[in-house]
Amino acid sequence: MSTVYQATASAPVNIAVIKYWGKRDTKLILPTNSSLSVTLDQDHLRSTTTSRADPSFVKDTLWLNGKEDEIKPGGRLATCISELKRLRQATVENEDPSAPKLSTYKVHIASYNNFPTAAGLASSASGFAALVASLAQLYALPVSPSTLSIIARQGSGSACRSLYGGFVAWQEGVLPDGSDSLAVQVAPQSHWPEIHALICVVSDDKKGTSSTSGMQLTVETSTLLQHRIKAVVPQRMKDISKAILEKDFDTFARITMADSNQFHAVALDTEPPIFYMNDVSRAIIAVIVEYNRLSLANGQGYKAAYTYDAGPNAVIYAEEKNIKEIIQLIVSFFPQREGTFKDNLGVFAQGAEVNA
Ligand code: 2P0
């Protein structure tokens, strides 16, 4: 019987608090600014990928949620796969001539997202991170998650941050080959386990402008982006990293909301303008602003921080002790309607789906 070479790995979704928006190199996926995210520590917002290498396979093949997906030559998927094969050869096979030449075999890859597309969450970050982690395991690559993040980055920028759990920075780097544009862990989740994320699904419609094309339009046309890159993000990266290390929720919340606001401002500053939030998104902002205002007036500091990606869904970061109150607040303002998930404002909390 021949040996089966197969490995399975999974990676969770991450939600940025300092947003990545803009590339200085579109092929290598090098960003115009550093970013920072929280990797969601829950079982049901993950991609799980199984990879198998076999000499009998005739071509590299990918199934996404059970459906075959094209691997375009020279495309992002092909780049990730060939980079991992190259690493296998350069490390394991070159060092140990008796190691099986897995880099010469074609691979079959099956990837599943366990969250419904209806959750309205981008799956490219967890998807590419799980794919890279699974092939790295299959090939027994003796490399760090940061090295793997360089490869995941070339699949989708935000994917590099899902190689680590907890609080993760993607350092933009300065080198033209992208070898220093990688993810590092600022702190593990266990450092600040009280931080939870509430995902409020406002709409599961496919967004109008993809991140990839939207951010390029912003780079080409927005003057505000230039200000953001040079004068705003570097200080925010330092300040929010410090806030995380010191478990300073007030600073974390202020910077998170300010950076979400500025990301949507640069989207609006794009020609033609890009709108990702809708009326419900803005109403949720108003609720959180008022909730914080009352809390601050009572001398209790910030209790919640909203952030929005390239779509209308809200993610609310809060400390565990306030999560229940925030869910009740959101649900009282935005009652859950009967009917399909699509019609509802779904609320997911870190750790469990909330039936409100
Ligand atoms: C982020 N987003 O930092 C930001 C905030 C959306 C808004 O990363 O072209 O899907 O594949 O590198 O990673 C979305 O961008 O774009 C994104 P590509 P990606 O999470």
TrEMBL record:
Report the pathway entry: Isoprenoid biosynthesis; isopentenyl diphosphate biosynthesis via mevalonate pathway; isopentenyl diphosphate from (R)-mevalonate: step 3/3
User: What EC number(s) are associated with this protein in UniProt?
Assistant: 4.1.1.33
Task: Give the catalysed reaction(s), semicolon-separated.
Answer: (R)-5-diphosphomevalonate + ATP = isopentenyl diphosphate + ADP + phosphate + CO2
Q: Which GO terms describe its biological process?
A: isopentenyl diphosphate biosynthetic process, mevalonate pathway; sterol biosynthetic process
The Mvd1 C-terminal domain is annotated at 197-356
- Domain Diphosphomevalonate decarboxylase-like N-terminal: start-end pairs: 11-183
One GO cellular component term of this record is:
cytosol
Where does the UniProt annotation place the signal sequence? none
Keywords from UniProt, A to Z, are: ATP-binding, Lipid biosynthesis, Lipid metabolism, Lyase, Nucleotide-binding, Steroid biosynthesis, Steroid metabolism, Sterol biosynthesis, Sterol metabolism
The UniProt GO MF terms for this protein read: ATP binding; diphosphomevalonate decarboxylase activity
Against PANTHER family, the record matches this protein to: DIPHOSPHOMEVALONATE DECARBOXYLASE (PTHR10977:SF3)
Q: Which NCBIfam families does this one have?
A: mevDPdecarb
The similarity annotation says: Belongs to the diphosphomevalonate decarboxylase family.
Recorded protein name is: Diphosphomevalonate decarboxylase
Q: Which organism is it from?
A: Laccaria bicolor (strain S238N-H82 / ATCC MYA-4686)
Q: Read off the lineage from the record.
A: Eukaryota, Fungi, Dikarya, Basidiomycota, Agaricomycotina
